[in-house]
Amino acid sequence: GSPGTGKTSLARALAQDADLPVFAFDLATLSNEEFSREWQEMQESTPCMALLEDIDACFEGRVNTRSDIEALTFDCLLNAIGGIQSADGVFLIVTSNHPDSIDHALTRPGRLDRRFEFGLPSEDGREQILQRITGNSDGLDETRNMTVAEVTEYAVAKSLEAVWHEKREHVLN
After folding, report:
1. Cα(111)–Cα(46) distance, rounded to whole angstroms?
2. DSSP for 73-132?
3. Most CB contacts within 10 A, which of 20, 40, 155, 161?
4. What is the pTM of this model?
5. What is the pLDDT along the chain (173 residues), one digit of tens a residue?
């Protein structure tokens, strides 16, 4: 899904709910050797969550978009996730802003078993966010085409504005 739709927030919530340590991998900065070492170290902490965020920013299909020769290869990534060595106890989450750009070898069952698309929140979802943060659903119509992150920011700004107004009125009276 698009940025701000809640992909990372859901991963964080799942890890917290299951009491799993999270290992976030910045694939764009890792070589094959570094990734393999970090993946192996992570496996010593199972059960755990491995989070590969914005994979489409690193790979276009099977090609790493980094220009240097030390870049992580798609084959190394595939072998870690679903190769000969077991990844038992690893809850893998991969996020993407452009899921259609992900190579099918990564999305086959046994590597990534489920795919969820995140879009804009429903009216009910926006109302819940507003209620939780502001205590009311004022502004529901104004948040119609906003992402989860934008609705949250809107609600926080409204709450801060209300607190500021209340404090200012108290000081002036």
Report:
1. 17
2. PHHHHHHHHHSSS--TTEEEEE--S-GGGB-HHHHSTTT--------PPPHHHHHHHHHH
3. 155
4. 0.81
5. 889 999 999 999 999 999 999 999 999 889 999 999 999 999 999 999 999 999 988 998 888 887 677 899 999 999 888 876 667 889 999 999 998 888 999 888 888 888 899 999 999 999 999 999 999 999 999 999 999 999 999 999 999 998 887 766 666 66
